Amino acid sequence: MTEKSHREGGLAAPIRHSIDWKNPEFHDEDSLFAELERVYDHCHGCRRCVSLCKAFPTLFDLIDESASMELDTVAKEDYWKVVDHCYLCDMCFMHKCPYVPPHEWNIDFPHLMLRAKVVKREKKGMKWRDRVLSSTDALGAVAAKPVVASVVNAVNASKPMRGLLDKVLGVHADAWLPPFASKTLRRRLADRRAGGEPSAAKATPTDETSGKVALFATCYCNNNEPQVGEDLVRVFEHNDIPVTLAARERCCGMPKLENGDIEAVARAKEVNIPILSALVDEGWDIVAPVPSCVLMFKQELPLLFPDDPEIEKVRQAFFDPFEYLMLRHRAGLLDTDFAASLGKVAYHVACHQQVQNIGLKTRDVLSLVPDTEVVPIERCSGHDGTYAVKREFHAMAVEIARPVARRVKSIEADCYTSDCVMAGHHIESVLGDGSKPVAPMTLLRRAYGI
User: Fold this and answer.
1) pTM, 2 dp
2) CA-to-CA distance for 278 and 299, rounded, in angstroms?
3) Which of 119, 334, 371, 388 could be disulfide-bonded to 341 (CB atoms 3.0-4.6 Å)?
4) What is the C-alpha separation between 236 and 238, in angstroms, rounded?
5) DSSP-based three-state secondary structure for 9
6) Can you list the alpha helix ranges (DSSP code H) found in 14-171?
7) 128: exposed, middle or buried (C-beta count within 10 Å: 0-12, 13-18, 19+)?
8) Are 168 and 175 in contact (CB under 8 A)?
9) What domain count does the chain have?
10) In this structure, is residue 402 part of a structural domain?
11) Is 314 found in the same domain as 242?
């Protein structure tokens, strides 16, 4: 092996290659297993990512318990066990692995896991439960109705019914499940549909922002916690940032991507991108209240469809909401006349926000509030949208979240929060002390007193 092969990392920034998912070789199982073997062997020799999630301990246990204690005596069928535990958080690529491109070993573990999920789905199919849980638009269309929502919420709160869901659907009886709102965010913001906001003419642009934003509501905030989206609108409008709502939208596609269903991602893209691209042409920037959705438009879609100029246009106009507020602050346009302090805040940094490489913008904005201390917790909560609710993975998701919950307790904060609202609730369930997380945008609204 050359000296260059031994060298770890370097000063060059990581390079993310596009995902060649339309290439027949991408779907070839023999080719996939050859690449899995290559990467697994490198990971075995490094083991730096052992504490990130359950995928790496699973791999290392398989090797350590094999006859030779090397990868050559691990059954190929067991390779899938590692794949099942990867929820594409990207933390290994962005924060830990010293062998990502431009290193010659060219290791992109999350995108290899995505490829494996695609091939596994094509080979073995997809569980009905996983189809249901990832069909967020369909779930919302049924459950987020005035009468139905109350019934669904009652079922989710019933121990006997949760036991039945566990047996029939494979949704763990103790896992936190999101409530459904009887009035969705899109219905609450119906007066802000694109095209009818006279206040948009008052927008103050900067070098990096147009000063007016289109809100991608997200299926979660639309159907489950619309208050978070409402808080965002109130905070932005308080800062003289006009807000509109896209005429229609689909789920960003992240739940389908995590199940290896790239075709479903492509179908969602065909609905969302033309609408969002038209808004960008009209001068609107775009924000979304869920980090995973922001990441989908800023990273995953551009890597899946690298030659689509409309996707690139949307990518350049898409912002994390706190990233956007900090850009306005740098231009002297953020209102810092706060009405109340927040005290000490334990702030869980969501993985899908960390890997956007924008820094801790939520912490930075909340820290502008007088007499407020924000203590970041940069560790995965283990929720991943659906991972924590699945019967076979729930215990592991709890195990991953325990260090975060212990840190929340040790901080002795006045409140705790997470950019990923679902992660916040998973931490809540692990804490088990009756305390409730508060969304960062809700905290900011409280600080403004609006």
Assistant:
1) 0.92
2) 20
3) 371
4) 5
5) coil
6) 29-46, 55-64, 79-85, 91, 109-124, 128-134, 136-143, 146-157, 159-169
7) exposed
8) no
9) 3
10) yes
11) yes
